[in-house]
Records
---
Amino acid sequence: MDWKTHNQEIMSCRKCPRLVAWREQVAREKKAAYRDWEYWGKPVPGFGDEKGRVMVVGLAPGAHGSNRTGRMFTGDASGNFLYPALYRAGFCNRPLAVSADDGLELKELYITAIVRCVPPKNKPSQEEIENCRPFLLQEIALLPNLAGFVALGRVAFEQMLKIYQQYYFYRFPQKPLFAHNTFYEFPNLPWLLASYHPSRQNTQTGRLSEAMFAAVWEKVALKVKR
């Protein structure tokens, strides 16, 4: 499979009735601030450097961010925190992400998510996560230079552990624990780095500061030997 076919499969997916209904409802009703926008309202494909060495994995599209713009972490508070950090670390060419055609380009990174449709209350069910997992596995297979993962948030981290167990058939001597900026290496497999998610809930409460997030991307830069 190539990237074009893969992305078309994502965008046409209707496996999860609850998520289909919700993403389309949000796209119809809109947010007052974006009433002039034509919302994307479909599953959101990944985005980035298709020859990159690092896969960044979030939870799901934001209701009025990715579900509106059609690109991961674009148009909401999480993206407004993520992309400036990536820009400062040299992983993208501009610090702002406002639309899918704003000229933003990623270097060495491919950004994706556990679930591709916006879930009600930002909480996908386990069945919905499992329905989406084949898309994530296909992206892993399509990245020829993949060296590691950055899991943004506990849910993404826990799901990536399942990838190691079910896709790589790796048995952990001791289960890795989620903590911010914690790095794990596994024999002959991509490494895994955990980070708090750059959600407004974390950034506005001070749970995740700019300095804490910068430390994550500094570590990634060292790992890809930039």
---
Amino acid sequence: MKQLFLLCSLLLFGSSGLAGQDLITRKTGEDIQAIVLEVGANEVKYRKFDNPEGPIYVLLKKEILMIRYKNGSKDVFIESSQAAPLVDPNEDSVIKTTPAKPEEDWENRGAQDARYNYTGARSGAGWVAATNIVLSPLFGLIPAAACSSSEPLPQNLNAPEPELMNKTKYRNAYTQEAHKIKRRAIWTSYGTSSVVWLLLVVIMY
């Protein structure tokens, strides 16, 4: 039993590594799960995460909004004509807010700020993974559905400028984009922990 408990613990804490892909977000809003190979002066080379031995793809940096790396760091790409970004000295290359414009598009700014700042903290993804591994994906489906259906709590949104949340369009766009990120984190956790549960069953039997 001690060996089984130790194995469960190792698999639980290691399950996040199975989802250790880089995430490339294009300016069109498309997300690409990738393994980033090289970030050059004008282009980014990567392989698709679900085909790590496959062909190398190339994207121009001007087509990319942001890259979230598996270690938690981010690179955000903006054109040089835009105003200088505000950078948190405690983080590497992380833009904390979108430069303001004379006629601000609050919906677009809210969605972009959410992509830059909301990390999915306290989303419930950890509980989903634990339930999946300890019980089964059938039981894990219940907290996964419940957590993914609810919007992030206001205190977990990590809005860069809280006063902007008083603007209805900005707040709605920020919250909706954060909800998308939360759902993606939960279902990724559900999928990877289901694989861990299956591996555990195979090892046991």
